[in-house]
Every structure is written in structure tokens, then in C-alpha cells.
Design a protein that fits this description.
Number of helices: 9
Helix content: 40-55%
Order of helices and strands: EHEEHEEHEHEHEHHEHH
Number of strands: 9
Radius of gyration: 18 Å
Oligomer: single chain
Strand content: 5-15%
């Protein structure tokens, strides 16, 4: 049976690659994003921060298909800059998309999945949710919140046959880097460290894995037979880093992050 999938943020980068691979695997993929729908029957133009619009779009998919097997929450964006000088409106907007937009989609699919007694929700987090990156505080905060949301929801809905997991990419070579809203406000006060940190971070991203590689892990987790774990890191090096975080003293992790992105 073809799986019916709703994927948010599927018009570029990891989302676009994931949608393509899911379709190759025989899934019926409905993609939600702010991009104009045009004549694509599989795309719905919807802002994930609009809870009513998200619910209407999800209900329309259910009315057409009679079920929703998978929700992949991928929509998100990044901002960078010193926390002290970040415009609160930018921080709030990021949390609205990266966390509460995800919540809107989850709230919309859960009644359908609970009634069916099955379903899987895959939330795209980030290794930054484990390692809070200097001068990328709000993005790190949003992705750490996704990890907490995933674990709490995992236990809340397990009795209804619904599985929840999160996938944590690291550095990915996509348009996400160029789309990041960057602010160098306070760079003089911080001794040029904001600019140096963001430059290093973006160099690492553009030298990272291809989105298709990340998508393969997301698709594997999404379609995995049996139960899934709450968290998956993508790539051996990032799995190793996440393991180190659980083994090393907090001060050691803090020092390593300072050396990488704080100097």
C-alpha cells in the first residue's frame, strides 16, 4: 500500500530531496510550503505558522486519501548573531516557524492518526540542538526544543500506535546557508568574533554532505519497519559527537565549542 505523506518545507534543500526519494519509494507525498502552488496537485501553499491554514490543508489531504501515514516536519530557517543584539522579533519569528509551526502540523494530523491507530511523525532537528552554537543561539534553542517535543510526544501518543522520532542533520550543503538571516550587530563590541564565527560556520556548511545524503537517512527512518528510536543523527561523525556529548564533562564540551565557533 502506498504511504500517504505530508512533508513541510519540501521545495528546496533536504525537503526537496526527501520528497523525491519518498516518491521513488512509492509514497504519495503532499508538500506544504509558502511557495505559490501553481498547477502542482501535490503542493499546497500554506504558512506553517497559520494553525487554521495548516489544519485545513491537512484535513483536505485526509478527505482525498482517507488516511495520513506520515508527517515529516522539515520547515524551518536560521538566524545568526550575538544573542544580546538579536532583534526579539527575529527570535520570535524563528521559534514560530521552527517550533510552533511544527506543533501546528502535529496537532492537525494527530486526530486522524489516533483514530486510525497508526502513524509516524518525523521531526527534523539538528546536531545544533545538542551542541548549542555560539552566535547561533536561537537556532540552537529551537532545535533543542524540537528534541524535547519529540521525546515528550513519543510517550504521549505511543499507546495509540503512533510513533514519533527526530532526525538530526549536521552541516549540509544547501541554500539554507544563503537564506540565513545574518546580523553583525555588536561585532565591534565582541571583537569581530561574530563575523569570524559565522564565516567558519558557513564554510563548514558548504563543505558538508549533500542534501540527498541526508534525505536517505530521513527516508530510511520514515519508512523503517517496526519501532523507531526518538533520535537519529545523520552520519558517523555526528553520531560520534552526540555520543561524546553524553560522555564528556559539560565544561569540556563548552570549551570545544568555544574553540570551534566562539573565539
Amino acid at each position: 500500500m502506498e504511504k500517504v505523506v505530508i512533508l513541510t518545507g519540501g521545495t528546496s534543500g533536504i525537503g526537496k530531496a526527501t520528497a523525491a526519494q519518498l516518491r521513488e519509494a512509492g509514497c504519495r507525498v503532499y508538500e506544504f510550503s509558502r511557495r505559490a502552488a501553481g498547477d502542482d496537485p501535490w503542493h499546497t501553499s500554506v504558512d506553517v505558522t497559520d494553525d487554521r491554514a495548516v489544519k485545513a490543508a491537512v484535513d483536505a489531504v485526509f478527505a482525498r486519501e482517507g488516511r495520513i501515514d506520515l508527517l515529516i516536519n522539515n520547515a524551518g530557517f536560521g538566524i545568526s548573531g550575538a544573542m544580546e543584539f538579536t532583534d526579539p522579533a527575529d527570535a520570535h519569528r524563528l521559534m514560530e516557524v521552527n517550533l510552533f509551526g511544527m506543533d501546528n502540523a502535529i496537532r492537525a494530523v494527530l486526530p486522524h492518526m489516533r483514530k486510525a491507530g497508526s502513524g509516524r511523525i518525523v521531526n527534523i532537528s539538528s546536531v545544533a540542538g545538542v551542541f548549542a552554537i555560539p552566535f547561533q543561539a536561537w537556532y540552537s534553542i529551537s532545535k533543542a526544543a524540537v528534541r524535547s517535543l519529540t521525546m515528550a510526544l513519543y510517550n504521549e501518543v505511543a499507546p495509540y500506535g503512533i510513533q514519533v522520532t527526530s532526525v538530526m542533520p549536521g552541516d549540509i550543503r544547501t541554500g539554507f546557508t544563503a537564506a540565513r538571516k545574518k546580523s553583525a550587530l555588536g561585532d565591534a563590541e565582541y571583537g569581530g568574533r561574530i563575523s569570524r564565527s559565522v564565516e567558519k560556520m558557513e564554510k563548514d556548511e558548504q563543505g558538508g554532505m549533500a542534501p540527498e545524503q541526508a534525505a536517505r537517512t530521513i527516508v530510511r527512518v520514515a519508512l523503517k519497519q517496526g519501532r523507531v528510536k526518538p533520535y537519529y543523527a545523520i552520519g558517523f561523525s555526528y553520531k560520534f559527537l552526540v555520543l561524546l556529548d553524553s560522555l564528556l564533562p559539560c565544561r569540556t564540551v563548552r570549551w570545544l565549542l568555544f574553540l570551534l565557533y566562539g573565539k
